[in-house]
């Protein structure tokens, strides 16, 4: 609106200049030309504004991704709303580090509460041939609606057993994607852990390694990303998209690929398409693993009972819920609820972009 107002003002000034030039008499022809120019300028401005709103700028890759029908990207909030939140956050940010120390009793209690009410054992939070055997009824993560009965064809898509079953790792790093990581220098500390969780195939280009580390043990992938970035591996573009997928995965080395498939039938289809695509080229560096419905429901229940006011927990919270089952000690990075750091530096939504913090993650609620 500010842009349109400015253009209208310029057009009005043009009319005034024409009036003065014509000795305070403006001809009908001049008036029509000025109005036509005004209409053209407004039209151009509207097109530019539409393009601006519909584009997402990634400062790491220097590429512009068009948001059309893909729900994977959220709308960037307005500058005024973001600045208001930034100023409000400055009043509530703790200026002194809390000095947290590992509390084994609290960690054990957390593990127990996460598993309460289901049959999931330590490290057995995945969908495997043991936890979802032949003829097992798989239900949606967020309801009792049946998604499928496990047939022999489906069964072979699951690992025989969980690679984390009864596994205990001394220390783990769970790395979120928050803008607080930018300039943090946490990379070496993150890499020193025995197991490293990362979210949503976040970029790991050289420029950020000092802040985020370079090692990965498990990386998550949102099924929506398979649709918009790899076109669900459909036939016409399958080979080039599979090649792009493998190239992107190479960033994370030999790591597990966590895909939450059972939120919907569409998610199941694209997840199985990814599994099939990797299988066809005998790609074994990144085994696809799917969290079990019982685990997701248990984790969601725990966080809801502890003040999380949203229908679905974030990817980061699900990773925390899984990590606590296989890690004796867990360290979180990139989980910061404010739009500002302790030095009142304004933060972006992620360490790898210039996007303003949005509402989709409800980070302050998660932090509490």
TrEMBL record:
Biological classification of the source: Eukaryota, Metazoa, Chordata, Cephalochordata, Leptocardii
Sorted UniProt keywords: Disulfide bond, Glycoprotein, Glycosyltransferase, Golgi apparatus, Membrane, Signal-anchor, Transferase, Transmembrane, Transmembrane helix
Any Pfam family: Glyco_transf_29
Cell compartments where the protein resides: Golgi apparatus membrane
GO BP: any one term: N-glycan processing
Keyword check for Cell membrane: no
The protein, known as: Alpha-N-acetylneuraminide alpha-2,8-sialyltransferase-like isoform X5
Topological category with respect to the lipid bilayer: Single-pass type II membrane protein
InterPro entries (UniProt xref): Glyco_trans_29, Glycosyltr_29_Sialyltrsf, GT29-like_sf, Sialyl_trans
Disulphides: 172-327
Gene that this sequence comes from: LOC109463990
Gene3D superfamilies: Glycosyl transferase family 29
Main location group: Golgi
Molecular function (Gene Ontology), one example: alpha-N-acetylneuraminate alpha-2,8-sialyltransferase activity
């Amino acid at each position: 609106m500010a842009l349109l107002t400015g253009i209208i003002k310029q057009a009005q000034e043009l009319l005034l200049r024409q009036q003065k030039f014509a000795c305070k008499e403006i001809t009908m022809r001049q008036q029509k030309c000025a109005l036509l120019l005004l209409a053209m300028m407004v039209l151009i401005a509207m097109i530019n504004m539409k393009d601006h709103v519909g584009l997402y700028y990634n400062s790491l890759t220097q590429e512009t991704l068009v948001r059309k029908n893909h729900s994977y990207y959220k709308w960037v909030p307005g500058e005024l709303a973001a600045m208001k939140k930034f100023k409000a956050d400055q009043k509530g940010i703790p200026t002194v580090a809390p000095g947290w120390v590992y509390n084994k009793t609290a960690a054990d209690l957390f593990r127990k509460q996460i598993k309460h009410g289901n049959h999931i054992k330590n490290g057995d939070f995945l969908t495997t041939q043991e936890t979802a055997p032949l003829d097992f009824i798989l239900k949606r993560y967020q309801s009792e609606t049946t998604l499928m009965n496990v047939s022999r064809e489906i069964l072979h898509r699951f690992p025989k057993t969980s690679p984390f079953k009864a596994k205990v790792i001394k220390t783990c790093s769970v790395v979120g994607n928050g803008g607080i990581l930018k300039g943090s220098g946490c990379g070496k500390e993150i890499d020193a852990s025995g197991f490293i969780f990362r979210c949503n195939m976040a970029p790991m280009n050289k420029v950020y390694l000092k802040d985020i580390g370079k090692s990965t043990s498990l990386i998550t992938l949102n099924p929506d990303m398979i649709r918009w970035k790899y076109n669900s591996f459909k036939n016409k573009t399958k080979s080039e998209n599979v090649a792009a997928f493998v190239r992107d995965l190479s960033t994370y080395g030999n790591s597990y690929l966590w895909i939450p498939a059972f939120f919907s039938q569409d998610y199941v289809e694209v997840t199985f398409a990814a599994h099939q695509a990797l299988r066809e080229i005998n790609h074994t560096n990144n085994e696809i693993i799917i969290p079990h419905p019982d685990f997701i429901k248990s984790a969601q229940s725990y966080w809801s009972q502890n003040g999380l006011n949203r229908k679905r927990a974030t990817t980061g919270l699900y990773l925390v819920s899984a990590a606590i089952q296989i890690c004796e000690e867990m360290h979180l990075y990139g989980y910061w609820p404010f739009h500002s750091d302790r030095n009142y530096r304004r933060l972006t939504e992620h360490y790898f972009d210039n996007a303003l913090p949005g509402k989709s993650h409800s980070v302050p609620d998660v932090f509490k």
